[in-house]
Write a structure and sequence with these properties.
The complex is a heterodimer of chains A (about 375) and B (about 350).
Chain A: E1 19-23, H1 24-38, E2 44-48, H2 49-52, H3 55-64, E3 67-73, H4 76-84, E4 89-92, H5 99-111, E5 113-118, H6 121-134, E6 138-145, H7 156-168, E7 172-180, H8 189-212, E8 219-222, E9 239-240, E10 262-271, E11 275-278, H9 282-285, E12 294-295, E13 301-306, E14 311-315, E15 326-330, H10 334-338, E16 343-348, E17 351-357
Parallel strand pairs in A: 1-16, 2-3, 2-9, 3-4, 4-5, 5-6, 6-7, 7-8, 8-9
Antiparallel strand pairs in A: 1-10, 10-11, 10-15, 11-14, 12-15, 13-14, 16-17
Helix pairs in contact in A: 4-5, 5-6, 7-8
Chain B: E1 20-24, H1 25-41, E2 45-48, H2 56-62, E3 71-73, H3 76-84, E4 89-92, H4 99-109, E5 113-118, H5 121-128, E6 135-140, H6 153-164, E7 169-177, H7 184-200, E8 207-211, E9 230-233, E10 247-258, E11 261-264, E12 279-280, E13 286-291, E14 296-300, E15 312-316, H8 320-324, E16 329-334, E17 337-343
Parallel strand pairs in B: 1-16, 2-9, 3-4, 4-5, 5-6, 6-7, 7-8, 8-9
Antiparallel strand pairs in B: 1-10, 10-11, 10-15, 11-14, 12-15, 13-14, 16-17
The chains are: A alpha/beta (about 375), B alpha/beta (about 350).
Chain lengths: ~375, ~350
């Protein structure tokens, strides 16, 4: 069911709750950090759509700068939404399995510059065969597992064998290598560089093995928000896959150059001396395995229990809270949260400036 | 919005585009009928919390296609969704606080039997501003696992007396939430104790409702003490006995990078892990190790099992409510075939 959205010009104090808010000034500041970091670098940002799920916002980063005018997507259906939103260059950062999805991918590649990850010969052969039957060509990058223990080749030799096969197939274009890793938790740049380099070097090693065999490596796609400033310093990395930096979240506040831009506005629906009850619960916030959000501006209030549609907060201080008061929730894991909502309410100086539809919400196919 | 490749009715369920949320129709109906019958035998009315699944299709089965049969929802927007789908007797858990919610309430109260649960005297002040058809009011009683509500019996008396001066409000009864299994009996005790106190003051409470929406009920219903008139539950349609899973998410293996590991296309965005990781239904020797936002990590003993790319893994969610909230559609399955696709009407109705 579609519900009415607030009028542009509405004060944040008059918004119905819970609402997912973007502090536009903070988000644009985050985008400017990227623009400045990548301005003079041959390496560029490829923003990940899985965090924001909204082509209009991804366009804002492209306009502000620092990107290669393309994005990442986690799934084929998410990539479709990006192409429909006018973005012509999309890297799908997972393997695409099954003829249904591979057909979608092949048709999408007729409309835009589409690339996908591979880590298996049979999957690659099927992909090429389906693309050939449709008359399209799909870019492929070999996924390298560097630390996460999930998909991806484990050795340079595996990568080389896959690259040779990709290079021999008519309907795929072998482009290079990519890897996921996270170096979250390190505030200082030097540690981030060392940690990031440790993993990214593993990806580069696979790329070098392939290059040494005479197959050209055009793309090395790696890094993420937590290595956004160190990945471009590593020779060979051509693009960085960052997504978290757009909105950030409570646990990533140590990256002080970025601001927390995504928050949930909630209302106090009950209160006593020991606790506060708010109208935001697990369904709108998420809370994977006990990772709980925080309350902006008052560290004496902590999430105690979260239920489907409400949460109970414990209070230690003497803050004066009344039923009807609104609070801003700092999210604990923003891309799980964003996937639950249909709209962002963009606010500047306390006034609603824009409503963004989260058009790739639910695109898990 | 969810964008699966559509499959024709009659397709085998394992051929659905994944990840896909499926519900077995005959098992769902059996659970719904058996639970209602079991409770009826001991004189307790079963009130479905339809916010758990958010679908009017399943809610109609739960209410026997009787629009006047009560349903329980969490939010005002959910009430609006079910009202639009034809449900006329709705109990709302969220108290009215903001002006927008009062406006919503005015619209709802003109159209149907509406019951609101309140936990604070200031909620009554908000209700005083509503004028229209009668609203029934439930007063929330706190207990060990949920301390929100009216803490003294004297408070209740004062509030009910206050309510009696308002023509459009009717004191309907008491409600308490049981959030932990071990607190269920205690929650019933405090509710009945409050009802007895009111009774001794010549105030009858027609409804004494135990809201067990946050629980997977495992105990026999006979454990519920006398005096409780209604049990609110959202999960009972999806109870699972052994392999006869009612509700699950189908996922596909998309990478098998090393022996004993498979990587599936279902992560936290397609199945909730808020109350634990899902269990693997169709491969007893496999389990979910962890889940990222987009993917699941399956581990298994490679001497017993050989999962391949493209294999389907059926996952049982640890939380039904939050998993339904991640989907726009539910695939209804009968005898392993797709029977119908129903929308989750109130998905995202957080307000």
């Amino acid at each position: 069911m579609k519900f009415n959205q607030p009028n542009i010009g509405t004060s944040i104090n008059d918004l119905e709750t819970p609402s997912l808010i973007i502090d536009l000034e903070a988000m644009e500041s985050n985008f400017s950090v990227i623009s400045e970091t990548y301005a003079d670098s041959p390496c560029k940002m490829r923003q990940h759509a899985k965090n924001i799920k909204c082509p209009d916002i991804l366009w804002r980063q492209i306009e502000i700068g620092g990107t290669l005018n393309g994005v990442c997507a986690a799934k084929v259906s998410e990539a479709e939404v990006m192409v429909e939103g006018g973005i012509r260059d999309v890297l799908i950062t997972s393997e695409v399995v099954g003829s249904d999805k591979q057909k979608r991918l092949a048709y999408l590649a007729k409309r835009a510059n589409i690339k996908v990850c591979i880590d298996n010969k049979d999957n690659l052969t099927e992909l090429s065969s389906i693309a050939a039957s449709i008359g399209s060509k799909i870019g492929v990058l070999i996924e390298v597992d560097t630390s996460m223990g999930r998909a991806g080749v484990r050795t340079p030799q595996q990568g080389l064998e896959l690259a040779k096969l990709a290079d021999s197939l008519e309907s795929v274009e072998f482009l290079g290598v990519m890897s996921h890793q996270t170096v979250e938790g390190f505030a200082d740049k030097e540690t981030r560089f060392l940690e990031g380099k440790k993993y990214i070097d593993m990806c580069l090693e696979v790329g070098k093995t392939i290059q040494d065999s005479g197959i050209e490596i055009k793309v090395v796609s790696s890094g993420e928000t937590f290595s956004y400033d160190v990945a471009p310093m590593i020779d060979g990395v051509t693009e960085v896959e960052g997504g978290t930096y757009a909105l950030m979240s409570g646990p990533t506040a140590y990256m002080e150059e970025f601001s927390l831009a995504g928050k949930v506005l909630t209302t106090v629906i009950d209160v006593d001396e020991a606790q506060i009850v708010i109208d935001a619960g697990i369904k709108c916030l998420g809370g994977p395995l006990g990772v709980k959000p925080g309350i902006e501006g008052d560290r004496n209030i902590t999430f105690d229990q979260m239920y489907d549609s409400y949460s109970i907060l414990s209070r230690k201080g003497k803050g004066n809270y009344n039923i009807g008061d609104t609070l801003l929730i700092e999210t604990s894991q923003q891309d799980i949260l964003v996937n639950r909502w249909d709209h962002f309410i963009g606010v500047r100086n306390g006034i609603v400036e824009v409503i963004y539809e989260i058009s790739a919400r639910g695109c898990h196919h | 919005m969810e964008r699966p490749v559509s499959k024709p009715i009659g397709q085998h369920f394992l051929d659905l585009d994944t990840p896909a949320l499926i519900v077995n129709n005959s098992r769902l109906r059996t659970n719904i009928e058996n639970t209602a019958e079991d409770l009826m035998k001991i004189g307790i009315k079963l009130i479905p919390n339809t916010a758990t699944h958010g679908t009017s299709g399943i809610a109609r089965t739960q209410t026997g296609y009787n629009p006047k049969s009560p349903i329980f929802v969490d939010t005002f927007q959910q009430a609006e969704c079910f009202f639009q789908a034809g449900f006329e007797n709705i109990i709302i858990q969220a108290p009215p606080v903001s002006s927008r919610k009062i406006d919503s309430l005015r619209h709802l109260q003109d159209s149907q039997t509406l019951t609101l649960s309140i936990s604070n005297v200031s909620h009554l002040d908000v209700l005083k501003k509503t004028h229209g058809r009668r609203i029934s009011v439930l007063l929330k009683i706190p207990n060990k696992s949920d301390s929100v509500g009216f803490k003294t019996h004297e408070e209740l008396i004062k509030l009910i007396e206050n309510m009696e001066t308002l023509e459009h409000l009717r004191f309907e009864g008491l409600i308490t939430n049981a959030n932990e299994m071990e607190s269920m009996e205690q929650a019933c005790e405090v509710l009945i104790s409050a009802a007895k106190y009111l009774d001794s003051n010549s105030i009858s409470s027609d409804q004494r409702l135990l809201n067990a929406s946050n629980l997977i009920l495992e105990k026999e219903f006979n454990d519920i003490p006398k005096g409780i008139t209604g049990l609110i539950s959202g999960t009972y349609p999806f109870y699972t006995a052994t392999q006869n899973t009612v509700c699950s998410v189908i996922s596909t293996v998309m990478s098998t990078p090393e022996p004993g590991k498979a990587f599936v296309d279902c992560g936290q965005k397609a199945i909730s892990i808020d109350q634990g990781v899902p269990s693997v239904i169709n491969y007893p020797d496999a389990e979910i190790e962890k889940m990222s936002a987009e993917h699941g990590y399956v581990i298994f003993d490679s001497s017993k099992l050989n999962l391949q790319i493209g294999d389907k893994i059926l996952l049982a969610p640890a939380s039904y409510s939050d998993t339904f909230n991640l989907y726009d559609f539910v695939n209804i399955i009968e005898e392993d075939k797709l029977q119908s696709i129903i929308p989750t009407d109130s998905r995202g109705a957080f307000k």
